[in-house]
Amino acid sequence: MAVVAQQDGLEAPPNVPEHRTTTKEKGRFCMAHCICGWRGPARRARSQARTDAERHVAD
Known about the structure:
Blueprint lengths: L20 E6 L2 E6 L11 H13 L1
Antiparallel strand pairs: 1-2
């Protein structure tokens, strides 16, 4: 799971949601989800779903 870490003394503005991602499996597919409502595409490779989540958090 990718989590955005806060730096010492710096906090995200209150109107910007924190991004916490997880991956969920459905049948043969794995998808990344974020608490902000974002969902990645269905992937057969778990590693690719995790990469999608990492890219989402970085954006």
